[in-house]
Amino acid sequence: MKVMTAADRIAIAPALSLSPIGCGTWAWGNRLLWGYDTSMDAQLESTFQRCLAKGITWFDTGDSYGTGRLNGRSEQLLGEFAGAYTGPNLDALCIATKLAVYPWRLTRQSLVAACMKSSRRLGRPVDLAQLHWSPKNYLPWQEGPLLDGLAELWDRGLVKAIGLSNYGPIALRRVHKRFSEQGIPLATLQVQYSLLATATVSELDIKAVCDELGVRLIAYSPLTLGLLTGKYDRTNLPGGLRSWLFRRLLPGAKPLLDCQRAIANARGKTMAQVALNWCVCKGTIPIPGAKHPAQATDNLGALGWSLDAGEIEDLDRAAARVKRPMMQNIFQTR
C-alpha cells in the first residue's frame, strides 16, 4: 500500500492541493441509499483517520448529503472528526463541499450564506466550494446569481478555490469565460465517471476541454456505487435502492467485470484498485467512497503503479460493449 506524501499532491490553486485520490462522503448520513445509522459514526471516524494518516488528504461532501432530518450530516461528521484528529497530515487536510442548487436559492447572497452554514457545520472554512449542478436546463435565470455567489466566495477569500459539478463542455466554457473576465480562476469540474459510466467524459470530450482551460477533472462514483468492487452478483446484492439498480446493471456488466477481474488477478490487485487506477490513468482525480478503514486501505492500493496500455485498451473495449451502462445523472448538462 502506497502512503502518499506532499510530493504526490496535485496543485489546483495557489493555496490548495489535492491528493491523487480523495474520499467521497455521500454515504455519511444517507439512509435511503446507503443505510446510514448513527451507530456507524465510530467506524466512519476510523475511516477518516486512516485516510488522512495515509495521505488521502481531501474529503468531498455536500450540503445536501444526509437524508431527511440528517441533512448536512456528512459535513457535521467531517467537522467533528477533523476537530478531534491529532495525527499526520492535519495541516494538509482539504474539505470540498458542493452547494446544492435548491429552488429557494435565488440570489448571490443565498449561495454565500449556504457556504457559511457549511463552514459552521464543518467548524472550519470550506477549502473548495463547488456548485453542485446547473439549473440551466430547467430554470436558466437561477444560474447567474449563484455563479456570482461562487465568485464572491473567492473574491472575499472565504474559500481557497471554486469549482463546478455536473457541467458539460459547453456549459463549462461559458462559466469559465464568465469567471475569466472577472479574473477568477475555476479550479475543478466534478462529473460521474467510471468503467460503467464513460459517456459523460468520452462522448462529451470533457477531459480535453478541462485540459485546455486548466481545470482539474474529478471523477465521482468511480466504483459505480460499489458494483465495480466485484463484491456483488445476482445472488449477493446490497440493500436498499442499490439492489434494484444492481439487478439492472449486472447482466450487461459481466464481460467488463470479467476483464477487470482477470487484470486484477494478474496484477495481484483488487478489482476496486483496477477500476480506480483506470480513472487515474485517464487523467482524473477519483473520489471513491469509504465507510470503513478497510475500504480506505483498498482505495490507497490503487496508487503507486499504473495499468499498461494494453490493459487500458482491454478495459476500454469491454466498457464500450456494456449494453446497459450506469444511468447518467439527471442534472448533467452539456
From TrEMBL:
Keywords: Oxidoreductase. Residues 20-318 form the NADP-dependent oxidoreductase domain. One of its GO terms (molecular function) is oxidoreductase activity. One of its GO terms (cellular component) is cytoplasm. Pfam families: Aldo_ket_red. InterPro entries: Aldo-Keto_reductase (IPR050791), Aldo/ket_reductase_CS (IPR018170), NAD(P)_OxRdtase_dom_sf (IPR036812), NADP_OxRdtase_dom (IPR023210). The keyword Nucleotidyltransferase does not apply. This is Putative oxidoreductase. The lineage of its organism: Bacteria, Bacillati, Cyanobacteriota, Cyanophyceae, Oscillatoriophycideae.
